Amino acid sequence: MSHLYLLHKPYRVLSQFSDTEGRTTLADHIDIKAIYPAGRLDYDSEGLLLLSADGTLIHRITHPKHKQPKTYWVQVEGDIDETALQALRQGVTLKDGPTRPAKAQQLSDPDIPPRQPLIDPKRHPVTSWLSLTITEGRNRQVRRMTAHVGFPTLRLIRVAIGPWQLDGLAPGEWRREVLHAPKPPKSTHPKPKSRHKRRSVSP
């Protein structure tokens, strides 16, 4: 049995529990001892962060071979079009190589709390939203992908990691899930019979 904590990391919060520069950290939002984040979320990004004290569970969530899909709601500058979305679906070539194909679709303005500070409407008069699901974890990958297709990211919210979802958690809120390790399958092979015969013993 393992405990997994799902936290909605707010904007401008470090994905760690201490900071020498006095910035806001996870310790300001979740007071659970000896837990560690499974992966990270950039300081200027928001949304779902998974934490646990179980190192094996953290490894299973974060290891690239498991390819846990991560879904983001992305507010971009400009009115994103089908050409850009199709490019994201096919994969784009960044400085560190081509990305895997992603799931990308335009999104109506989501019902979420406004970010503080607000995005300046004078500097960014036209914005749009998309939902983007990737199976990689490169540094600032989503931001680089949207910039590559001509629509810089203004706001980035991670809403799902594999089967775990944000599910209405407000910024700074968290919940705990209890995970049970799967039981090993029962063997369908009959036990081998002993080859040794019993000898009768006279009383």
Automatic annotation (TrEMBL):
Region spans: Disordered: 93-123, 177-203
SUPFAM superfamilies: Pseudouridine synthase (SSF55120)
Pseudouridine synthase RsuA/RluA-like domain segment(s): 3-148
Stored InterPro entries: PsdUridine_s_RsuA/RluB/E/F_cat, PsdUridine_synth_cat_dom_sf, PsdUridine_synth_RsuA/RluA, PsdUridine_synth_RsuA/RluB/E/F, RsuA_PseudoU_synthase, TruA/RsuA/RluB/E/F_N
Keywords: Isomerase
Domain of life: Bacteria
One Pfam family per UniProt: PseudoU_synth_2
Biased composition (Basic residues): 186-203
Name by which UniProt lists this protein: Pseudouridine synthase
